[in-house]
Amino acid sequence: MHTMIKTDYLVIGSGIAGLTCAHLLSEFGNVLVITKGELKSANTYSAQGGIAAVIEKEDSFESHLNDTIKAGAGHNKESAVKYLVEHAPKAIRFLESIGVKFEKTPVLEACHSRPRVWRTSDFTGRDILNQLIKTVQKNKKISIKEYIDAVEIIESDDGCHGVFAREGDETELKPIFAKQTILATGGFGQLFGRTTNTLGSGGDGLALAINAGLELEDIEFVQFHPTALDLEDKGKYFLLSEVLRGFGARIVDQDGKQFIQQFDPRGELAPRDLVSRAVFFELMNGPVYLDMRHLDEKVIKKTFPNIYKQAKEYGFDIVNDKVPITPVAHYACGGIPVDLKGATKMPGLFAVGEVACTGVHGANRLASNSLLEAVVFSISIADSIERSVEIDKDRDPEIKDIKPPEVVIEDIAQVKAYSSRIGKIMWKRAGIIRTKEGLEQAKKQIVEIPARDYRIQHRQLVCYKILEACLNRPHSLGAHYISDELA
Ligand SMILES: Cc1cc2nc3c(=O)[nH]c(=O)nc-3n(C[C@H](O)[C@H](O)[C@H](O)COP(=O)(O)OP(=O)(O)OC[C@H]3O[C@@H](n4cnc5c(N)ncnc54)[C@H](O)[C@@H]3O)c2cc1C
């Protein structure tokens, strides 16, 4: 990156949100996509279940809306949920238009009143992302740069002008100027020691927003997924999709007995926060397993071939053995607040996908609403940019003689060690069960980490904000569970 870069639209992130936006915005100007790792390194690539949408005539928007609000503990913004569910069929049509091939019938996931989750296979996210990558790679108006780390927003009195970014192992930042910048950097599961999230999900977008003076919303609502295959000795947690439970998989204790029913009559298909807590408590007595041995082996192997194969590679046979599970950090329900057009409070800056908070998820996300949200609001951003009279489409974003900030870059082993320390603190103190004392302690421990590297400082900043948000909500709600509730 030795020459100055200027583009109409700068998209940061190459998951479903970033690439959908890039594709749609290319109709109105040149697009540059930058992404921190390789193109496929995104949570989208790991998504298994599918994408929720009302397509069948027996289903209704009202039912999808009610299910979403019920899962979100009523904390959702109803207008945003309405927008989401009503635009879901359009999102599916968009994906089909770029070649995504959904199965003919939808499947069931927890808290949906009926099957309405559309999948392409048991690795739906991977199929969608592969199709998006093909689409953007052949689009001449889109340039793609991998291994570029967005580090700081370039701002002036008239808003966002792009970002300062670092290419590969370079030690200096360079400006990338853009008329409109779209943050699509995903979630922050990697801030927790146990997670399904990919390495790039460390909350970078939130750090950029905080440093640019933006407030965050609902970041205390971290969804924990109850059924990750426990590969702790490998430092990995492989998701065992909720659709498996939709097909009848049971969660059992060390004696092979089901126990979730004691916590909630919906059993295995109760909301994720309840099931996660039940598993978490049972793990104090001994190992917990997902058991599919009573199900038809052929059906499971045919419906979940990739999950079966991947688990087998990790040394587990999900059809013939019960397999050890653990809850893990999975999804960030909150993020940078945006309106229905994906706009943040800063002119020239949009946020979309898991990094954004549209308000659709409330205090806990309904399964398979997040891929949906990313597509619905990407379409909305493109539509609003096209139609907006407030957006100056001829604005020159460049700021002359601007000096990039200096950053400290520490040895990667040191960065990993600090990340791991942060992960342990957050998992222990801000995980499934929180207490006021634990959260206060975590705040102290996080700031005490003597990091100078910008990547760790960003993580410290985001964790601190999450911990503050937890402390500011003294009562349990949805995915936020505080065991010593204050009066
Ligand atoms: C295992 C798993 C299974 C899931 N299953 C489902 C499902 O079935 N249905 C569903 O709806 N949702 C599911 N989810 C959630 C869903 O996958 C994510 O919410 C969604 O993919 C997020 O898309 P995104 O584009 O916002 O972010 P991501 O796909 O995570 O992409 C973020 C991108 O930003 C890049 N990035 C981050 N920081 C920077 C930076 N500083 N500079 C440059 N680039 C950066 C990353 O490298 C990445 O390319 C699942 C999640 C996981 C982890």
> Which topology of the largest domain does CATH recognise?
FAD/NAD(P)-binding domain
Reading the helices and strands in chain order gives: EHEHEHHEHEEEEHEEHEHEHHEEEEHHHH
Overall shape: globular
| Strand residues, percent | 15-25%
Report the biggest beta sheet as strand number plus sense, adding barrel if it closes: 7 strands, mixed
Ions, cofactors and other bound molecules: flavin-adenine dinucleotide
Write the layout of secondary structure elements.
Layout: E1 5-12, H1 16-25, E2 31-34, H2 43-46, E3 51-52, H3 61-71, H4 78-97, E4 117-118, H5 124-137, E5 142-145, E6 148-156, E7 159-167, E8 174-183, H6 204-211, E9 222-231, E10 236-239, H7 242-246, E11 250-252, H8 272-282, E12 289-291, H9 297-303, H10 305-313, E13 323-332, E14 336-337, E15 349-351, E16 356-357, H11 370-387, H12 412-430, H13 436-448, H14 454-471
Parallel strand pairs: 1-2, 1-8, 2-5, 8-15, 14-16
Antiparallel strand pairs: 3-4, 6-7, 7-8, 9-10, 9-13, 11-12, 12-13
Helix pairs in contact: 1-5, 1-11, 3-4, 4-11, 6-14, 12-13, 12-14, 13-14
The structure holds flavin-adenine dinucleotide.
